[in-house]
């Protein structure tokens, strides 16, 4: 059994320790209680899009097994659970009155969390746009932002009395780039840089939803952005310029409007954002109670070769160990991006929550039924050391959420990429806490 880890730094008493999941990745039950279809149902049913043709129809069956999962969270000794609400459960066609049976699920989940002394952190959008909303243009259509605000109001009216932390959007950068830019995620559009209106409309959706959440009495409102340090592949000015363009596209076209009410100067990009985008900036830049940062790894970027579709290309970070999905393990990148955010935004950066960090490994139970995942323990330990260093550097970080509580449906990768602290057998749905779960539990007890 795990023992307290003397190599871990200590954190403030009120630091919020949590684990995260998202609706489509864990819930299953896609046809129950009136849930409508989402872009991910459609994408998964499109041949060639998801590894092995897998989908979230059953996933972890969290929709039915949430009491067991809440017990696992409580036993782990965490303070908080970050989950997402599925828009197509609440509004099966993306508009109109709430589907009460859909909201009931989140009501039960929230009550179970509170009964176990766990703080609910609700994300309103983790990529599962109702299919009819997509058919009307999805994030390319300005109207989607208004549809989203209506949905946000319905959820908040039901849950804001018990959910203290609200996240509007998860990783709009990934939705824009992978969903609308290169088509690796739903809805599978390949618009390259013409995808940028999807960025602006998500930001507008955030602004409108923030207003709706606050009028429904939500206590704390924030957003969860994917952030990555961007490393030029060389000192050559072309590589440096390519890296700056990539950083704009991944980091700053989200962070800047949200936190300082301006878009970065996209001099490298002709056209791009909607013409009247500037008019929306005051709404987008409403003060936030916290800023969520999802960190996995840095990105090395080089100038594109002739004939490549974008002005930059991603180069390998080959000198580092990699996780099962192939991403380099760079713990100090977490410190680097947090310090960069603080340097860029200064007093305009609200308190930060690390809303996702974790790694995929090829975990399986051995003949004794034990899931030994030493690489995940090392990964988490090293990232917590880097996080503590960022705090010592002056970044006001208030919490840390492991991605993920459970092995789950890893989008286009299907079920082969296991990010969980808890192993899930996707045939039997049996949950088995991994060694990393036992390690974290002991560490949290030691912290008190
Ligand atoms: C998050 O996205 C999601 O919020 C979550 O749903 C998901 O399950 C989890 O992370 C794990 O994937 O190929 O080396 O250039 C992660 C966003 C964007 C982070 C792509 C890593 C590529 C690294 N990811 N990025 S690399």
TrEMBL record:
- Catalytic activity reported: Hydrolysis of terminal, non-reducing beta-D-glucosyl residues with release of beta-D-glucose
Key words of the record? Carbohydrate metabolism, Cellulose degradation, Glycosidase, Hydrolase, Polysaccharide degradation
- Source species, domain of life: Bacteria
The UniProt record lists the keyword Metal-binding: no
Q: Which InterPro entries match?
A: GH, GH_1_N_CS, Glyco_hydro_1, Glyco_hydro_1_beta-glucosidase
Which Gene3D superfamilies does this entry report, sorted A to Z?
A: Glycosidases
The UniProt record lists the EC number as 3.2.1.21
First-tier enzyme category under EC: hydrolase
Q: Which residues form the signal peptide?
A: none
Q: Which family does it belong to?
A: Belongs to the glycosyl hydrolase 1 family.
Q: What is this protein called?
A: Beta-glucosidase
């Amino acid at each position: 059994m795990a023992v307290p880890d003397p190599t871990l730094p200590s954190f403030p008493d009120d630091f919020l320790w949590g684990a995260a999941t998202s609706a489509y990745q864990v819930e299953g039950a896609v046809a129950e209680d009136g849930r409508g279809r989402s872009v991910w149902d459609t994408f998964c049913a499109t041949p060639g899009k998801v590894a092995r043709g897998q989908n979230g129809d059953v996933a972890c069956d969290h929709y039915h097994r949430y009491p067991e999962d809440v017990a696992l969270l409580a036993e782990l000794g965490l303070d908080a659970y970050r989950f997402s609400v599925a828009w197509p459960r609440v509004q099966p066609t993306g508009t109109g009155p709430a589907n009460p049976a859909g909201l009931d699920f989140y009501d039960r989940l929230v009550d179970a969390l509170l009964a176990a002394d766990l703080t609910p952190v609700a994300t309103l959008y983790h990529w599962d746009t109702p299919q009819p909303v997509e058919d009307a243009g999805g994030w390319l259509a300005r109207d989607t932002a208004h549809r989203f605000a209506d949905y946000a109001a319905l959820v908040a009216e039901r849950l804001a009395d018990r959910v203290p932390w609200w996240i509007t959007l998860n990783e709009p950068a990934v939705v824009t780039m992978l969903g609308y830019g290169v088509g690796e995620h739903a809805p599978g559009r390949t618009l390259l840089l013409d995808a940028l209106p999807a960025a602006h409309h998500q930001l507008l959706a955030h602004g409108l939803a923030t207003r709706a959440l606050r009028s429904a009495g939500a206590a704390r409102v924030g957003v969860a952005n994917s952030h990555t340090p961007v490393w030029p592949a060389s000192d050559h000015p072309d590589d440096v310029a390519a890296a700056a363009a990539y950083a704009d596209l991944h980091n700053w076209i989200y962070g800047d409007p949200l936190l300082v009410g301006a878009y970065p100067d996209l001099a490298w990009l002709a056209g791009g954002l909607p013409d009247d985008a500037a008019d929306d900036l005051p709404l987008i830049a409403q003060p936030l109670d916290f800023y969520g940062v999802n960190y996995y790894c840095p990105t090395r970027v080089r100038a594109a070769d002739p004939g490549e579709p974008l002005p930059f290309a991603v180069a390998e970070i080959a000198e580092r160990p990699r996780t099962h999905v192939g991403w380099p393990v760079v713990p100090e990148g977490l410190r680097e991006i947090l310090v960069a955010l603080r340097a860029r935004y200064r007093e305009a950066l609200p308190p930060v929550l690390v809303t996702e960090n974790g790694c995929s490994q090829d975990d399986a139970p051995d003949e004794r039924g034990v899931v030994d995942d030493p690489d995940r323990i090392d990964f988490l330990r090293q990232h917590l050391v880097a996080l503590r260093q960022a705090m010592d550097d002056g970044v006001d970080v208030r919490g840390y959420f492991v991605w993920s509580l459970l092995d789950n449906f890893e989008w286009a990768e299907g079920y082969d990429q296991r990010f969980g602290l808890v192993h899930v057998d996707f045939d039997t749905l049996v949950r088995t806490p991994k060694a990393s779960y036992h390690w974290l539990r002991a560490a949290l007890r030691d912290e008190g």
